[in-house]
UniProtKB/TrEMBL annotation, chain A:
Main location: membrane
Stretches with biased composition (Acidic residues): 777-789
Domain MrpA C-terminal/MbhD: 614-677
Organism: Murinocardiopsis flavida
Name of the protein this chain belongs to: Multisubunit sodium/proton antiporter MrpA subunit
Membrane topology, record value: Multi-pass membrane protein
UniProtKB/TrEMBL annotation, chain B:
Name of this chain's protein: Multisubunit Na+/H+ antiporter MnhB subunit
Domain of life: Bacteria
Species name: Murinocardiopsis flavida
Lineage of origin: Bacteria, Bacillati, Actinomycetota, Actinomycetes, Streptosporangiales
Domain Na+/H+ antiporter MnhB subunit-related protein: from-to ranges: 35-157
Keywords noted in UniProt: Cell membrane, Membrane, Transmembrane, Transmembrane helix
Length: 822, 198
């Protein structure tokens, strides 16, 4: 069923763009169908899955590499499907009201959103590391397209690139980690790896660190969190979907997926707890400072993602139960809040705290929905956020968490409380900023949103309330996932656990949070007074710019543009490394000189002597000639002489080809010579020329000696031994040709690809040169006449329909004469 | 005018068609009648030779590469004799098209055997007895050779187009601009003189 659901996503993604042309933004309703279908399927399969019978499917992909599209849905995947597809479907319906029908590139947006939903579904259900990686990167790429939706704005393009470079860039080490893990574990199936982790391998910690790096980048953990606030340039429904409900949860999901097997491996827990806590605190602190409601939510999301990462990686029974509750709670309340901001932005045109006032009175339903969601985020009963936060606090009460040292759990607990206080404060600030009456801000006039438009946030927020008031609905899911961890007494999600330390901490959080909100002006003053830490964004820019600079400086050093220098470097390397080695070997007598039949002999045929003398004479003459054209002619003669040697040795094919190539290159060089000075620039007998001659002579001698020694030094029988017999079978009498077109045809194929590439490259290089010239031309004062007179060749230089220049203007005399005769 | 023996030939003596197909503006130097005649006579023969080399390559010296080089010689000769318009008029398709077609043929010969469960680039053989030609041996390697042939012709033609024809065009353009400049200066001078008179 699962591969089929993903296939439906792909099909709908293809169908949606034409639909938007007919239906406008209402095409999003069609686009939501595959998501709704997935959610319904997940709900219908839920009883069996929670009962411990995961749904599984498998499609072979590359069997020889052990890569297949394995799918497996257990309690964790089920929770994620509900987030990805359930909340996704609601957000898609909301998008139908959010986007205008004439929104630019609406079809692309809808299509990419469906692709994203499909790949995310793949990420959370894949049971093969490679399949997971492919879907993972698909989400990165589609997120790039979605963040850069408004591709005419530079900041959108930059934010999209930043998100892609960060998430996909850290995806590569993650792939390496996957490969190491699969190799040491002997399988690429995630369920098998988690069930039987290769704990005794020394490579395991490295693999886990690499995988965590990828997960941290995806889930925007400090110091890689910068891309998430940047990605807020995306349309608000996209932000609500990708950056609250779905994509950023990918990293958390991966950590939670691997945690049952690997949480006890050494650096795992420290990394997860450390980065998670830091992210929680920094995100919360910066959320308090934002004026833009959407950015406030973005930093709030960063903070919550730290919280989720910490719960996912802690690897204890209670933390696992808390994770499921918080995953659902965060998906519901953050999506609600994003959609609320979307409505505010859509109706009023602004989303800045300092510009909004009195919205609560105008839109009481929306304000109530947002209020419930914010209360859930702050952790107030009877909402799902409270249930989750209780469980999370309970998980780190010292002594309750097996495997976590007491000191560490106290530190985590303090961090959790501090971050929760910040969360309470920014939740309150969000509500106040969006809906309160502010005496210093004038009210704006705006149209009220339609009921259907408001329905989405109300629905999501209501779901949070229902799940919070009736925690037994979500509890089986949490219990089923948490059962994978060792535990004495199963933890159950509930509103009331009795008078526990966790409840006391919750009360403390609320009290401190209220204090912080009441004293918000003092908090703001304090935040202004604290020197700002350098932004992580800066690190990204430094990295990108230093890569550019490094690439440029390397290119500048290697590509000086001087052909003699290139050749000189190549020849010098040839002489310095293999040349010296050969010399040393000859001097020390390591190399036996060929003897007997293969030893040195003057000629096989006296005619060779004649050709050789010609070659020597032409070679010397070429070097002595300092005019270009004669030098070209003499060097061609040298080439023809070499062809003569081939003929004498009985290789007519080689000779024929060489003669043809020599002829053509000579002609083409003559074309080029028109543009070059008549003589070479080097002084006829200067030191530069002497050095060149010396170096070339040395290189030539080296090649000749090497060839002579190498042919004699054969130890294995030549591979061409049976060629002559096989050629008959292949149906050819010309062995050279049969080798080229049959035995070694793949080589020939590679060569013609190189030839074609070279042809295109030569043509484009010349074209590039020409474009450059045209661009730099100053503006003419009489453009009409200028255009008429110019003889502009087509892009390939000789389009058959190229018009002849208009008669008269600047035609050579010969041409005019011929025209006359016609 | 009208004096016999000084003007171009008239009546039945007048040539019915040109030696080459376009208005000749040779790539180098002045027109050469000898070159034009030689080009016209030789080009078909050269092209025939190239096809012969291509087909006979499997048993005798030759093959797609040599054949392609010979065929491109024919076009280079045409270019030298008649200039870039002549080259353009004689081409069956653009050099890029030739490259693409050649690669496509080579890819097809490489890939088709896979469909029949054979290794890549496997050779199939077909022997026929045709009425005039007698026994004929057709190899799928010949199709591959045709691909090589086309790529080589495409390569040489793009190089000739880029280094020869385009440079020539640029030179012509530069000449033209110079003349336009001159004409403009002339006109300004006249206008200035006229205004001076008034």
């Amino acid at each position: 069923m699962l591969p089929f659901l993903i296939a439906i996503h792909a099909a709908v993604a293809v169908l949606v763009p034409p639909l938007t042309r007919v239906m406008g933004a209402r095409a999003f309703l069609v686009a939501s169908l595959p998501l709704a279908a997935s959610a319904v399927w997940a709900l219908s399969a839920a009883p069996a899955i929670v009962g411990g019978r995961p749904a599984a499917a498998s499609v072979p992909w590359v069997p020889s590499l052990g890569i297949s599209l394995d799918f497996r849905v257990d309690a964790l995947s089920l929770a994620m499907i509900l987030l990805v597809s359930g909340i996704g479907a609601v957000i898609f319906c909301y998008s139908a009201g959010y986007f205008r029908d004439d929104e630019r590139a609406l079809g692309r947006l809808a299509s990419v959103l469906v692709v994203f939903a499909g790949s995310m579904l793949g990420v959370v259900t894949a049971d093969n590391l490679f399949a997971l990686y492919v879907f993972w990167e698909l989400t990165s790429v589609s997120s790039f397209l979605l963040v850069g939706h408004d591709d005419r704005k530079e900041n959108a393009r930059r934010a999209a690139t930043q998100a892609l470079v960060t998430t996909a860039g850290f995806g590569l080490p993650m792939l390496v980690g996957f490969i190491i893990l699969g190799t040491i574990g002997g399988t690429y199936r995630i369920s098998e790896l988690v069930a039987a982790p290769p704990l005794d391998s020394p490579w395991l910690p490295l693999a886990l660190i690499l995988i965590l790096a990828g997960a941290f980048a995806k889930s925007a953990q400090v110091p890689l969190h910068y891309w998430l606030p940047g990605a807020m340039v995306a349309p608000t429904p996209v932000s609500g979907y990708l950056h609250a409900a779905a994509m950023v949860k990918g990293g958390v999901y991966l950590i939670a997926r691997l945690s049952p097997g690997f949480a006890e491996v050494e650096p795992w827990r420290w990394l997860v707890l450390g980065f998670g806590l830091a992210t929680m605190l920094i995100g919360g602190w910066r959320a308090l400072r934002q004026d833009d409601l959407k950015l406030l939510l973005a930093f709030g999301t960063v903070s919550q993602l730290g919280f989720l990462t910490l719960l996912a990686g802690a690897g204890t029974h209670t933390a696992a139960a808390a994770l499921i509750a918080m995953l659902l709670a965060h998906g519901l309340f953050k999506a609600t809040l994003f959609l609320t901001v979307g409505i505010i932005d859509h109706q009023t045109g602004i989303r800045s705290i300092s510009g909004l006032s009195g919205l609560g009175r105008r839109m009481p339903v929306l304000a109530a929905a947002a209020g419930l969601a914010a209360a859930s985020m702050a952790g107030l009963p009877p909402l799902l956020g409270f249930v989750g936060k209780e469980a999370a606090l309970e998980a780190f009460v010292p002594g309750h968490a097996p495997g976590v040292p007491a000191a560490a759990s106290v530190a985590v607990l303090i961090g959790l409380v501090a971050a929760s206080v910040l969360t309470f404060a920014y939740s309150a600030r969000f509500l106040w900023g969006a809906f309160a009456d502010k005496p210093t801000v004038s009210e704006r006039r705006f149209p009220l949103p339609s009921a259907a438009f408001t329905a989405a946030p109300v629905l999501l927020s209501g779901a949070g309330l229902v799940l919070g008031a009736a925690p037994f609905l979500a509890d089986p899911l949490a219990a089923a996932y948490a059962a994978g961890y060792p535990h004495e007494k199963p933890y159950h999600l509930a509103l009331w656990h009795g008078l526990t330390p966790a409840l006391g901490l919750s009360v403390l959080v609320v009290a401190l949070g209220v204090l912080m909100f009441v004293g918000r002006s003092a908090v703001a003053r304090f935040q202004k007074a604290v020197p700002r830490s350098p932004e992580a964004d800066l690190g990204y820019h430094l990295f990108v710019h230093s890569s550019y600079a490094a690439a440029l400086s390397v290119t500048r050093r290697l590509q000086t543009g001087s052909l003699p220098v290139y050749l000189g470097i190549i020849l010098a390397t040839l002489l310095a490394l293999p040349g010296v080695r050969l010399l040393v070997a000859l001097v020390r007598g390591d190399l036996a000189l060929p003897t007997g039949d293969e030893s040195f002999r003057l000629w096989d045929n006296p005619l060779e002597l004649v050709v050789a003398v010609t070659l020597v004479v032409t070679a010397v003459a070429t070097v002595r000639e300092h005019r270009r054209f004669p030098a070209l002619i003499i060097i061609s003669a040298l080439g023809f002489g070499t062809a003569g040697l081939f003929v004498l040795h009985g290789a007519p094919d080689l000779a024929l080809t060489l003669v043809l190539v020599e002829t053509l290159t000579t002609i083409i060089l003559v074309f080029v010579l028109r543009r070059l000075p008549a003589t070479f620039h080097t002084r006829p007998n200067g030191w530069g020329k002497r050095m060149t001659v010396l170096m070339c002579t040395a290189a030539g001698t080296f090649i000749a000696v090497t060839l002579w020694l190498a042919t004699a030094a054969r130890t294995a029988p030549p591979v061409s031994g049976g060629y002559a017999e096989h050629a008959e079978g292949a149906g050819g009498g010309n062995l050279v040709n049969v080798i080229l077109a049959d035995f070694r045809a793949l080589d020939t194929f590679g060569e013609i690809v190189v030839l074609a590439t070279a042809a295109v490259a030569v043509a484009s290089l010349v074209l590039l040169n020409r474009r450059d010239r045209v661009v730099n031309e100053p503006e003419e004062d009489e453009p009409a006449e200028d255009e008429q007179g110019r003889d502009e060749p087509g892009p390939d230089g000789q389009g058959a329909g190229e018009p002849l220049p208009a008669g008269g203007v600047g035609q050579p005399a010969g041409g005019a004469q011929t025209e006359g005769r016609r | 005018m009208g004096v016999r023996g000084t003007g171009p030939p008239e009546g039945w003596e007048a040539p019915k068609e040109r030696w080459l197909s376009t208005v000749v503006r040779p790539a180098f130097g002045p027109r050469s009648l000898l070159l034009e005649v030689a080009a016209r006579l030789l080009i078909p023969a050269i092209l025939m030779l190239s096809v012969f080399l291509l087909v006979s390559g499997h048993d005798r010296p030759g093959g797609g590469f040599a054949g392609g080089l010979v065929a491109s010689m024919a076009y280079v000769l045409r270019y030298i004799a008649g200039g870039r318009h002549e080259l353009a008029a004689g081409l069956p398709m653009r050099p890029n098209g030739l490259l693409a077609l050649g690669l496509l043929l080579a890819c097809a010969t490489a890939g088709l055997p896979l469909l029949f469960g054979k290794p890549v680039l496997d050779t199939a053989k077909l022997e026929l007895v045709l009425p005039v030609f007698g026994e004929v041996k057709l190899l799928s390697a010949l199709v591959f050779e045709v691909g090589v042939f086309l790529v080589v012709v495409g390569l040489v033609l793009s190089v000739v187009a880029a280094l020869g024809a385009r440079m020539e065009a640029e030179e012509a353009e530069a000449r033209q601009e110079q003349e336009i400049d001159q004409a403009r200066r002339e006109r300004r001078r006249l206008r200035a003189e006229k205004e001076g008179h008034e």
